[in-house]
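P.,

For your records, the input lines for the assembly:
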Amino acid sequence: QKEVEQDPGPLSVPEGAIVSLNCTYSNSAFQYFMWYRQYSRKGPELLMYTYSSGNKEDGRFTAQVDKSSKYISLFIRDSQPSDSATYLCAMSEGPGGDMRFGAGTRLTVKP
Amino acid sequence: GAVVSQHPSRVICKSGTSVKIECRSLDFQATTMFWYRQFPKQSLMLMATSNEGSKATYEQGVEKDKFLINHASLTLSTLTVTSAHPEDSSFYICSPKQRSNEKLFFGSGTQLSVL
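Structure tokens returned:
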């Protein structure tokens, strides 16, 4: 079993749809959770950062962490074609810990 | 977010040549530098970790003599792919990290194509 599981997709939705992206993990020591967006042939850019459990909202993006279920989610409201990218979840135990990445989910938002 | 500069963005070279990739952290000091490789439609694969002034630690299966890493300063690290072969063709991404910061920031990546 991989330490971090993420459905690679691809996921295709119409413009305006609500998108739900998810990751599960097995290491209960993970405390820091991140979502990165990666456009084709570009480096990943940090989209959302969450510490421990709870929700965090930033514009059209909401990140949720459920540590009891070892499950994290990223929601995108009113999705736009410019949101088309690969979304990577990432997590670590702490500042000195190694970062573990999901496989990435390829998202296409069709106009 | 932090500003990371990675060059070149794309390089095409002949088999047997060496290629150097530079990664700079422009607005913070990177005590640690991660180098990743990414094949098409796959996730990031950690190649090596280097701490400033120390030798790099390589992941299993990554040849240290082929992928030379230099991290001589807190703002600059280089990855040299020596005697490149077509199977080394990939997207290479650096990630400088501050000691006390759990977030990772990435360079824009370098697409290496070895003919």
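Two observations worth noting. The interface with chain A takes residues 1, 4, 6, 34, 41-44, 46, 91, 93, 99-109, 111 of chain B (CB under 8 Å). The first strand of chain B starts at residue 4 and ends at 7.

Regards
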